[in-house]
Amino acid sequence: MEIIRITATNRPLVTDFLKIAGATTLQKFRYYDSRSLDIMDHHLATFVIRHQDSSIAYGHLDREEDTIWLGIAIAENFQGKGLGTLMMTHLLSYARLQEIPKIKLAVDLDNEAAIPLYKKFGFKICQQTPKIFFMEWTLPAFRGS
Fold first, then answer.
1. Is the dihedral of CA 82, 51, 37, 26 positive or negative?
2. Angle formed at CA 47 by CA 57 and CA 116, multiple of 5 degrees
3. Alpha-carbon dihedral of residues 81, 87, 89, 95, nearest 10 degrees?
4. How far is CA 58 from CA 31, 54, 99, 101, 142, in A?
5. How many Å apart are CA 75 and CA 25, to the nearest integer?
6. Is residue 132 part of a domain?
């Protein structure tokens, strides 16, 4: 397995992910329902996890005005294998290196696998609608010696 940063030249790796993600994954990860792949030109970072010539997981950090949004998705056939943890670790490590102070995400209330994952990484619920939790992560303050 390898984590690959998406650029203009390897963008088809995201198309590959969207083709194999599965209906259940794409019902929960609706980011590209209303956006073209060109939106990646404006992402702070986009990554896929590749395994045996397939993109099996996706993650991004996207700036929308003053807010940085995190999005991840794991292909149906690869869920429950630690890929969400791997992608979250990678995205938040990137955020720390870039000194991004705050990240938000939106998750369906019935996404019982994702919510505990996000909480494990320090995301806290900051707002709720009838169907969605909005969660926020804050860059931990540096504790020098």
1. negative
2. 55
3. -170
4. 11, 11, 22, 22, 29
5. 6
6. no
Provide the CATH number for the domain around residue 9.
3.40.630.30
Domain count for the chain, please give it: 1
Structural domain containing residue 74: 2-100
- Residue 142's pLDDT is 53
Q: What's the DSSP call for residue 132?
A: E
- Asked whether the beta carbons of 84 and 113 are under 8 A apart, the reply is yes
Q: For the chain, which ranges sit under pLDDT 70? A: 142-145
Specify the pTM.
Answer: 0.92
128 within some domain: no
Sequence-separated (6 or more) residues with CB below 8 Å from residue 71 = 29, 31, 58, 59, 60, 62, 105
